[in-house]
Amino acid sequence: MKAIYLIGFMGSGKTTVGKSMSAKWNWPVFDTDEELEKKVKKKH
Asked: Which domain holds residue 18?
């Protein structure tokens, strides 16, 4: 499976667009901020 990377400034809608694409096409989505928060068990 190929990947699509969404890049941009904070607050530009990357997470929103990624989750929307995930829901529409049943694709997995990984938000690096969320993954880091899980790993260190802290919120930003």
From this structure: 1-44
- Global pTM reads 0.71
Q: Return the half-sphere exposure (C-beta side, CA atoms, 13 A cut-off) of residue 8.
A: 11
- By the 10 Å C-beta count (0-12 exposed, 13-18 middle, 19+ buried), 21 is classed as middle
The token duo for 7 is 């890049």
What own/partner pairs with CB < 8 Å and gap ≥ 24 does 8-15 have? none
Domain count within the chain: 1
* Percentages (nearest 5) of helix, strand, coil residues in the chain: 50, 0, 50
**Digit-coded pLDDT (tens) for 18-40:** 999 999 999 999 998 888 888 99
